[in-house]
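Consortium newsletter contribution from the modelling node. Members have asked for a concrete example of what our holo predictions look like. Here is one, prepared for the aspartic acid complex that several groups have been discussing at recent meetings.
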Amino acid sequence: MTTAAHAQEKTDWKLVIHGGAGVIERDRLTAEQEKEIRAALDLALQTGSRILAAGGDSLDAVEATVKVLENDPHFNAGRGAVFTYDGANEMDAAIMDGENREAGAVAGITATKNPISVARAVMEDSPHVMLSGAGADQFSREQGLEQAPPEYFATPERRRQLEEMKAKKISWFDVDLKYGTVGAVALDSEGHVAAATSTGGLTGKRWDRIGDSPIIGAGTYADDRACAVSATGSGEYFIRAGVAHEICARIRMKGDTAKAAADAVMAEVKELGGSGGVIVVSPKGEATWSFNTPGMYRGQASAEGRTVAIFGDE
Ligand code: ASP
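And here is the predicted structure:
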């Protein structure tokens, strides 16, 4: 085969990211915040794009992309994770490889700088799919992953949000109705998809509550036969609707386009009373999102370039 013919067989790579969905409207963000968030989303896209453009793996791309967002305090993941009711930061993350449907997830971890990397280590270096709490923290240390003290994750703005919630005696559903989970889905030039999601969960969560993000099939799923999905929103509803797997199932068994599948499942979430959004890529090269909130921090990249968006009308 000539090099040119071989090159044509390569798939066009795609990367889609989110940084959370919710009541994100123009009058709720300062010009400065908006600029910083757009720059952070673009930096994340650049990071993953570099890997994919060089022929790298979708799995490596989604992990590297999510790490950038975890490191940025604007998002509810890693540094800048929301506080639990008891004033701690407890994080959830999941990653999945569409080529072989291998998956790894962690819930309620407290000390790893990049939670998504523990999820990957669970997938690759343990016989399990999901670890939680103190055991997951111990596994992370044993894997030699970079640890960080509680002060690293805690930011004044997130503490203020917890205090506001407690003062107003409102539930986490009402805390400015913004979900800041981060996620990435990618299609690489070999035609494989992968998904990654990372979050601090919901402000004021109690009783070791776990959301949809680390639950394979709810907030995160990847299957080369269908698509890769990462979700953000009111996790309880996403778990009940089995959102990420349901989108893949519609594509695989019903022949839906990625957009039609995502819209249909987000409509189901809304019917149940939930809100949020999803990002999706498929091995066919579809790259899309769907959300039922006023805005979603999001972006996509391909060989053609990068775009980021925040508000629903963009
Ligand atoms: N889905 C996440 C959870 O319920 C929250 C978010 O998207 O910000 O834990």
